[in-house]
Amino acid sequence: MKKERQQAIIDLIQSRDISTQEELKDGLRSLGYKVTQATVSRDINKLELVKTLSKSGNYKYARIQSKASAKSPLEELHSLMGSLVASVDWAGNTVVIKCQTGMAQAVCAKLDAAKLPQIVGTLAGDDTIFALVRSEDAALSLVDELRNDIRA
């Protein structure tokens, strides 16, 4: 049932512009799936959906890349940084990553998947990620690494 529901999500976002979890939930319900917002949210994360600009200029859900990618999570993170991240800064043992609007959760998912040893945990909003790191030295090291990706 889960795989079928997730395929239905992919079909929905490919066939029409869906910009909110509520619209996605309604679309799934119209197809006979009994889902909650929490289920939709988990599926969005599992399918690695992000919001991109549609032709009409509004944001819509889309797949970031095919699952057949041979890239490691760290390589995927580095490839996203240049296109989705605007700036990286730090204060104490916290790194602040500013992303394009609506892209912080996608970048944060890749950051978490990369399992960088200096990161204790992350928190993403719409356009900002906070990464708690183990020390100020670790923060400086992470900032340098991520800024190199932005410049590349």
Structure explained in plain terms:
- This protein has helices spanning 2-15, 21-30, 37-46, 73-84, 104-114, 136-151; strands at residues 49-53, 59-63, 85-91, 94-99, 119-124, 128-133.
- By secondary structure, it is of the alpha+beta class.
- It folds into 2 domains: 2-63, Winged helix-like DNA-binding domain superfamily/Winged helix DNA-binding domain (Arc Repressor Mutant, subunit A, Orthogonal Bundle); 73-151, Gyrase A, domain 2 (2-Layer Sandwich).
- The strands form 2 sheets. It has a 4-stranded antiparallel sheet with strand order 3-4-6-5. A two-stranded antiparallel ribbon has the order 1-2.
- The chain starts with a helix and ends with a helix.
The biggest beta sheet reads: 4 strands, antiparallel
User: Total number of β-strand segments?
Assistant: 6
So how many helices?
6
Strand content: 15-25%
Helix content: 40-55%
CATH topology of the largest domain: Gyrase A, domain 2
Quaternary state of this entry equals single chain
CATH class of the largest domain: Alpha Beta
Helix/strand/pairing category: alpha+beta
Summed up, what is this model?
This protein has helices at 2-15, 21-30, 37-46, 73-84, 104-114, 136-151, and strands at 49-53, 59-63, 85-91, 94-99, 119-124, 128-133.
Topology readout:
Elements: H1 2-15, H2 21-30, H3 37-46, E1 49-53, E2 59-63, H4 73-84, E3 85-91, E4 94-99, H5 104-114, E5 119-124, E6 128-133, H6 136-151
Helix pairs in contact: 4-5, 4-6
Descriptors for this entry?
single chain, 152 residues, alpha+beta, Arc Repressor Mutant, subunit A, Gyrase A, domain 2, 2 domains, four-stranded antiparallel β-sheet, two-stranded antiparallel sheet, 6 helices, 6 strands, elongated
